[in-house]
Amino acid sequence: MSDNILARVTHTLATEQSLESLVRQLLEMLELVTNMESTYLTRIDTDAQIQHIVYARNSGDMTIPENAFVPWDESLCKRAMEENFFFCNDVDVHWADCERARELGIITFLSTPVHLADGSLYGTLCASSSQRTPFNLNGEQVLQLFASIIAHYIEKESLVTQLKAANAALLYHSYTDELTGLPNRRAVFEDLNTLFAHARKVDCRVTLAFIDLDYFKAINDLYGHHCGDQFLQQVGQRLFAFKHEDGLVGRLGGDEFLFAVLSTAVTAYPDFTAALHEQFSGDYPLTETTIHYPGASIGVVDIDPVTTDVENALRAADNAMYQDKKLRRKMQSPWHIG
């Protein structure tokens, strides 16, 4: 390998880039070393028996079409692998019956498999020409080196993708209540701070509702925690359905939930508090039975985010909820389940 190519490869590997960018640079260098008209990377789907030309570089009259698909049984690469014959400069004679090679005008063909670390076949790295080109040991060595580089990069990209997906999943779970799918306490506090900051920016008040599910312990005690979980899930669904696009909902833990929205949004409700109460009352079909739930205790407060921070706003909503709970106990008859 010439010092110039070596320097280019070193520089290419030292820079952060996508697989496509890396491969395109390697294909260009491969063309220089092999003196071939076309260089290309393929991917092989053994299940579908298809070979996909992923990236290609064409500098002469012959064109290997990028993004083309070739039946694996008709591929030169498959024949080369089966015969362990990776260089041929008389394709028109040695593989005279290969229709694909004849259509593309391939006379000289050089390829090598791209194997991943687990031994699986990713695809092939190839160079071809419509002219008879003598065997080039340097070109073969570079081809194999580039195939190894590409395989390592594919594995690196795959690992990065897996790590990103795992991180996203962890982040999602760290901000999501596992039972209801609503934002959890941590997410609620962060989202509230964001909502309050936005409200200050647009000079708007915030309506906050602290929700405590009355009689939840009785449901658990009588029907078991699995029914209690179903009840909480349905409460979460009802609360989410009530949510305004500019607001937020979440489960603080246990039987406590929170609803918050810019105060301008609640003007759509003739009586916001009554509408929220109505959202939670009614029939809840559980595994063991269907219960008619009288509703939750809800503390609704209207907050000026300029003078009241999130912590004090929550305290005010919690106090309002306890006042509502006292009032409901005085006005309601004892609730019996079953």
TrEMBL record:
Lineage of the organism: Bacteria, Pseudomonadati, Pseudomonadota, Gammaproteobacteria, Enterobacterales
Protein name: Sensor domain-containing diguanylate cyclase
PANTHER family per the UniProt record, alphabetical: BIOFILM ARCHITECTURE MAINTENANCE PROTEIN MBAA, DIGUANYLATE CYCLASE DGCP
NCBIfam families: GGDEF
Tagged with keyword Nucleotidyltransferase: yes
EC number of the protein: 2.7.7.65
Keyword Transferase: yes
InterPro entries membership: Biofilm_reg_signaling (IPR052155), GAF (IPR003018), GAF-like_dom_sf (IPR029016), GGDEF_dom (IPR000160), Nucleotide_cyclase (IPR029787), Rev_trsase/Diguanyl_cyclase (IPR043128)
Pfam families, A to Z: GAF_2, GGDEF
Source organism (scientific name): Pseudocitrobacter cyperus
